[in-house]
Amino acid sequence: MRKTNKVILTCAPTGSIHTPSMSPHLPVTADQIAHAAIEAAEAGAAILHLHARNEADGSPSPRAADFMRFLPRIKQGCDAVINISTGGSAMMSLDDRLEGAKAAQPEVCSLNMGPLIFDFSGAGKRVEHWQHEWEREYVESSRGRIMYNDNAYIERIMLEVGREFGTRFEFECYDIGHLYTLAHFADRGLIDPPFLVQGVFGILGGIGPDLRNLGHMVTVADSLFGEDYIFSAFAAGKHQMDFGTQSVLLGGNARVGLEDSLFIDRGELAKSNAQQVSKLRGIVEALGREVATPAEAREMLGLKGGDAVAF
């Protein structure tokens, strides 16, 4: 792992898991997403991991038009690196999931390094009243869906987004096997270091939220990539801050955001994404490390720069 005293904080403001009925603070309109992202950047997030939503009902959207409602505003309001999801949701085709990335040509896109059961049905147990018709079925039926990315899909994303636009990737690894898939594509020369490896923990269907698993993932990644990678981690739900802290202690980086957890403390909903970023920033600084600026993150990751995007 490449280690510096600088810590790259990523914020994922909305995602495609949580629904409007789960928290009044979840940003779902373009205005809300733009505001939340800029606030998170001001709090210390160097990278913003973004999904789009339908304006009418807050459901996940792959449409480029929905991304473009907020991307230019975020770019105008802050200097953070924009990272667009190519995961979208398990309800979307690959072509759907690539629509926003191809239109925006961002500095970074997320890339799931394999298929997995992506069961977030438990998140619906806290909801007493659903605001929109789509929400309940979408959440409860996740136990029967697979988030699909096979090696052919992964290669398409690397070629059609990475090679075509000079976009680099946040390689989301939900299990140890995903690291070996990443090594396969690195050996083939389809991607170049440094690799931003984002360890994802606590999704029902992926690697569990045991801190020993975080250490194991770093050990395996070290054996596969040596100093050719930069590590970051996050965990879903109540494990968010524990895993962010442990990743920083191991010399890595971390991600927070309402995509990953709606809470700031036990039983207390986070009022904003910026609140989570500020809490993690305080932990980072208490540990004697410094939060990286967007310019420093660009240098660390070898990014093309914010002037080379299409928004």
Automatic annotation (TrEMBL):
Q: List, alphabetically, the Pfam families matched.
A: BKACE
Q: Carries keyword Transferase?
A: yes
Molecular-function GO term, any one: metal ion binding
Family annotation (InterPro entries): Aldolase_TIM, BKACE
Which cofactor does the UniProt annotation name?
A: Zn(2+)
Q: Does this UniProt record's set of keywords contain Glycosyltransferase?
A: no
Give UniProt keywords alphabetically.
Answer: Metal-binding, Transferase, Zinc
* PANTHER family found in the cross-reference section: 3-KETO-5-AMINOHEXANOATE CLEAVAGE ENZYME, 3-KETO-5-AMINOHEXANOATE CLEAVAGE ENZYME-RELATED
Q: What is this protein called?
A: 3-keto-5-aminohexanoate cleavage protein
The species is: Aurantiacibacter rhizosphaerae
